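Action item from last week, closing it out:
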Amino acid sequence: MKNEYNTGHGYLKLGEYHLHYVSRVQNLKFLLFVAFTVSVMFERLGKNGREFEEKTKQHIDEYADAGLRTLILAYRELDEEEYNIFNKEFMEANNLVSADREQVVEEISEMIEKELILLGATAVEDKLQNGVC
């Protein structure tokens, strides 16, 4: 019996607080989930993905005033063809053995990290920030 919740793959770029994860839900559609820093996310939202933008910005300001590190969360659906093209190119880029590997992976990721729908924001206390060498 085939697993109905067949997960795809994830990509984590810690230096820029950038995460995306693709999951196949009930073998019907692919969902792309993305977490970014505030500076990047809002420019990648689609027209239909901005319903909670102003309220989320208010929350982000409150979190920042409290000294918390914030991430913006968003998603979008991918059709199977779009996912298959992306996945092939992403895997090839991820397996490169060259100095520009990270740049190529980033460029491939940006192909699907667009027209996103805002989910909201999250915040965490970053105790490592002070006194880190």
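Closing note: Residues 1-7 have pLDDT under 50 and may be disordered.
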